[in-house]
Amino acid sequence: MGIALDGALHWAGEPFESRFGEGSDTPVAGISLVHAALELELWIETFVDLPTGVVVRRVQVTNRSDRFRDLRLLFHHDLALSTGEPRETAFHDAASGGIVHHAGRRFALLNLDGPDGPGVPLWRLASRASSTAPGAEELPHGGRIEGPSEARGRVDSILAVPLPLPPAGAALVTVTIATGRTLEEARGRDESFRRAGAAASLASARAHWSLWLRQGERDLLDLPEDVASLYRGSLLALRLHQTPDGAILSGVEAEPALGALPEYRWCWHRDAAIAADALGRAGYHASARRYFEFTLRSVRETGALHAVVDAAGAPAAAAASWDALALPLWAFARHFERERDVEFAAPFYREVVIPTADRLAATLDPDTRLILSPDRWEGRVGFHAVVASAVGGGLRASAKLAAGFGDGSRARLWLNAADDIARALGRDLYRPEWGRFARSLTRQGRAFRPEPTLDASLLLLGLFDDFEPEDPRIRATVESVRGGLWVRTGVGGLARFEHDPLGEVGTTEIPGNPWIETSLWLAQHAVRTAARAQDLDAARTLLLWCAARSEGWGLLPEQLHPYRGETKAVSPSMAAHAWFVGTVVDYVERLRLLRRCEQCGAPAQARRETQASFISERSLPGLVGHL
Questions:
Q1: What is the pTM (predicted TM-score) of this model?
Q2: Are 9 and 2 in contact (CB under 8 A)?
Q3: Residue 411: how many CB atoms within 10 A of its CB?
Q4: In a 3-state reduction of DSSP, which class is residue 149?
Q5: Which residues contact 105 (CB under 8 A, 6 or more apart)?
Q6: How confident is the model at residue 485 (pLDDT cuts 50, 70, 90)?
Q7: Distance (Å, rounded) from C-alpha 413 to C-alpha 417?
Q8: Which of 206, 202, 219, 337 is nearest to 280 (CA)?
Q9: Closest-CA residue to 384 (of 360, 368, 366)
Q10: Which element (helix H / strand E) includes 547?
Q11: Given pLDDT bands bounded at 50, 70 and 90, which one contains residue 520?
Q12: 448 has which bridge partners?
């Protein structure tokens, strides 16, 4: 977005001063932009109209000067609707008055509603020679906004509206994106939104999401408002990562650094299963159920469960990450234990659990009884402790389902395989001389060598019902990981592993960038082992640490810069939000069990949350930065 004023073009960014809106628990993003030199202020609200799926951005421009201003408000769009060699078309649509971007069966109708009514009064279309070449935003000398009525190839566009503003005057502009598989469908959604109006659409969106949040509301006991606010935002973030078909995507943006690896915008079952489990335990059973229905459809259409699938359920080109196949089984067994919906569970058990658990049990290495797989970070291939832990947890959960459905032979087969994995973990991967588990075993000829690198993924041992919380080997491993991977700067947090090549490694005190999800794994262990209410202080502090490092609308990034605390890699991180929601639910349930009635010994009663019930304690980064 930009402003053309007095022959000069000013794109939003520097030197605009930005400030996010306060106090919204709904996915309506508000931000204020102020340009002191131009004496202009912009208030921007962005949301999605629920009945039509139209993306809406409302911009109010206020003239803070004492003179008349004749400006142009510009909106630049580079949608990249096609992959590979760009074959996109952009053109002015006389029927709607908007600009259409089109590639294959993807149509996006961009439209405006300004002081002179609906339609795009000024536009510029361009076809760029390359992804880095200038496009529509490169206005000709004098800033004239004009161009061809159609462009093809690698196209982008500018929509503009003139805004003559008197001193202290203001004007409101609404820009929309309506999509469809046909131009008629996109036009129909655009027209439906305009009939309802932006004000009614915004009120409906706020009401819908307020009701949705109340569905799983709970008393968060002693957790402060910062954590409660991030909890509500995390629930919404997880829901907004779920497609209408039920897939839970690992990200909302492409990550160029991935290269040939699958996109974050696809469904990585390793993350999606954790998110579905967190949503279900938080009270959003319908969202969890839609994920399992999506998984069942994907298996029916492709013939097997795949580690990574796209939003339609088609398999992506990814390595065989066996923990990504085990965790949906683990999450589904927990879902069934909560819901007990036999008619829903039976086809999933027959068509997903049985073939996948059979594959997992048959894939165990005959020598080690572990499983050869890429590690948690999609890097080295070996016999990794965390993969074995997840596979063991998935097999044990599948055995419980099999026993429930009267499938005794499979229950025994899968339980025996899970026991083999547990024995192998204790025999080959626990190293008494190190006082902890090894990250992995690597084959050297006929022998196997334990990998000594300290890795935060070792904290996942015990989180998939594979070890008891009090197991001294797990406790010792947790302490080793905490001591070796905590980032000892004002930022804090836990790095992935020693000498992480993706990190800003500057000294021996900084093993890598701090990650949100790894830090939450520490909190998970603090919750699991708490024997008294005060034992939960470490987990509570880590939840405060996450709240202090959320950004903007309350979004958690994947990782942080170890010195400056700024966002690194993707944001928001669906995995970080999933682990945050799960940790808050675990914390509250554990604290409720530890706060027993002095007379009868019963756990404290769970209460429905109200807005007034939150403790108004605030947190600042400095309070938890010393960790």
A1: 0.84
A2: yes
A3: 18
A4: coil
A5: 181, 182
A6: very high
A7: 6
A8: 337
A9: 368
A10: helix 537-548
A11: very high
A12: 443
* 35, 477, 481, 494, 503 from 513: Cα distances, Å: 34, 21, 15, 8, 5
pLDDT tens readout for residues 101-127? 999 889 999 999 999 999 999 999 998
Predicted pLDDT at 621: 37
Host H or E run for residue 568 = strand 567-568
* 334 phi-psi bin (left φ>0, alpha ψ -120 to 50, beta other): alpha
Answer positive or negative: Cα dihedral of 119, 121, 126, 131. negative
pLDDT band at 569 (very low <50, low <70, confident <90, very high): confident
Could you give phi then psi for residue 587, rounded to 5 degrees? -60, -50
pLDDT tens, residue by residue, 137-162 = 887 766 678 777 889 998 999 999 99
Higher pLDDT pick, 615 / 299: 299
CATH 1.50.10.10 domain position(s) in the chain? 319-480
Burial of 444 (0-12, 13-18, 19+ CB in 10 A): exposed
Do residues 402 and 413 lie in contact, with contact meaning Cβ atoms separated by under 8 Å?
A: no
Question: Quick one: pLDDT at residue 505?
Answer: 59
Condensed to tens digits (0 to 9), the pLDDT of residues 309-368 reads 988 899 987 667 899 999 999 999 999 999 999 999 999 999 999 999 999 999 999 989
DSSP state of 557: -
Residue type, position 606, single letter: A
Rounded Cα–Cα distance for residues 268 and 264 (Å) = 8
The length of the chain, given as a count of residues: 627
Report cis status (omega within 30 of 0) of the bond before 148. no
Q: If residue 397 lies in a helix (H) or strand (E), which one and from where to where?
A: helix 385-404
Rounded Cα distance, 121 and 160, in Å: 7
DSSP string for residues in 304-372: S--SEE-TTSPBPS----HHHHHHHHHHHHHHHHHH--HHHHHHHIIIIIHHHHHHHHHHS-TTTSS-E
d(CA 394, CA 190): 46
* Region 556-585 average pLDDT: 90
Catalogue the E-assigned strands of 64-149: 69-77, 88-93, 98-103, 106-114, 117-118, 122-128
- Whether the bond between 572 and the residue before it is cis, its omega within 30 degrees of 0, is yes
* Token pair belonging to 66: 């004492």
CA distances from 345 to 281, 301, 338, 354 (A): 17, 18, 12, 12
* Residue 370 contacts residue 428 (beta carbons within 8 Å): yes
CATH no. of 319-480: 1.50.10.10
Q: Is 418 left (phi over 0), alpha (psi -120 to 50) or beta?
A: alpha
pLDDT of residue 246: 95
Q: How far apart are CA 288 and CA 278, in angstroms?
A: 8
Q: Is the pLDDT of residue 625 over 50?
A: no
CATH 3.40.50.1010, applies to 2-210 = no
Nearest to 113 by CA among 59, 62, 65: 59
Which residues in the chain are classed under CATH 2.70.98.10? 2-210
